[in-house]
TrEMBL record:
<dbReference type="InterPro" id="IPR032675">
    <property type="entry name" value="LRR_dom_sf"/>
</dbReference>
<protein>
    <submittedName>
        <fullName>ARAID factor</fullName>
    </submittedName>
</protein>
<dbReference type="GO" id="GO:0045669">
    <property type="term" value="P:positive regulation of osteoblast differentiation"/>
</dbReference>
<dbReference type="InterPro" id="IPR000742">
    <property type="entry name" value="EGF"/>
</dbReference>
<feature type="domain" description="EGF-like">
    <location>
        <begin position="108"/>
        <end position="119"/>
    </location>
</feature>
<keyword id="KW-0812">Transmembrane</keyword>
<dbReference type="InterPro" id="IPR042350">
    <property type="entry name" value="ATRAID"/>
</dbReference>
<keyword id="KW-1133">Transmembrane helix</keyword>
<feature type="transmembrane region" description="Helical">
    <location>
        <begin position="125"/>
        <end position="146"/>
    </location>
</feature>
<keyword id="KW-0472">Membrane</keyword>
Amino acid sequence: LDLSNCSLHSVPPGLAEATTAIVLDLTENPLTALPDDSFLGFTQLQSLAVPLPLECPGGRDAWQDVTVDSSSRLCQGQRNACNSSVELAWPCPDNSVCAPDGPGLTQCLCDNPFHGYKCLREGTFPMLLFGGILGTVTVSLSLLLWGTQRRKAKT
């Protein structure tokens, strides 16, 4: 994805939809900063060129090779932050596993069959029970309101 020399002052919001990009060029743009979540989900990104004043997203530890030339910085070979020697700020809770989520970013995915907040719930979501209760409450409230409000609608 070549976005070089596009007069970008900030990362375009549509960039979040290009998470499958392997090569990204942002050079020759007057970018002042790259927000931390700009490359959230860019797990396949292997080469990123940014203007010289900017650092590689995730820092030097997130890339295997960082090369600086006269006008740009080339970040190559995204590292898996889960396998790094740098300790994670928030380790994943029990019943979950760390997964990369972009340069220097991680996410915790629940192991099967766990789900929910901090992967503490086991089994599957009780869809039938939830749908039954929600349907019963909706029909009951609708009938109650119809019965109490219909005389006002006739006048």
